[in-house]
């Protein structure tokens, strides 16, 4: 299996890339939390088991 540090490292890298992308697309204006959750929800829900995808989506946004 994968070591938890490897998973969290990947999530951190994904967060950085996602934020860079969003800043390029939408500029530097702040987005509300609900919008960020909606943006994160789609890829997480297609890749992660249903029991944890809501919790993981919230954690990614936070």
TrEMBL record:
Protein name per Swiss-Prot or TrEMBL: Uncharacterized protein
GO (cellular component) term, any one: chaperonin-containing T-complex
Species in which this protein is naturally found: Sousa chinensis
Taxonomic placement: Eukaryota, Metazoa, Chordata, Craniata, Vertebrata
Gene Ontology terms, MF aspect: ATP binding
Pfam families: Cpn60_TCP1
Alphabetized InterPro entries for the sequence: Cpn60/GroEL/TCP-1 (IPR002423), GROEL-like_equatorial_sf (IPR027413), TCP-1-like_intermed_sf (IPR027410)
Stored Gene3D superfamilies: GroEL-like equatorial domain, TCP-1-like chaperonin intermediate domain
């Amino acid at each position: 299996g994968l070591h938890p540090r490897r998973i969290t490292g990947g999530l951190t890298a994904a967060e950085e890339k996602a934020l860079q992308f969003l800043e390029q697309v939408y500029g530097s204006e702040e987005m509300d939390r609900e919008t960020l959750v909606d943006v994160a929800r789609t890829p997480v829900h297609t890749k992660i088991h249903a029991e944890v995808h809501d919790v993981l989506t919230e954690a990614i946004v936070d």
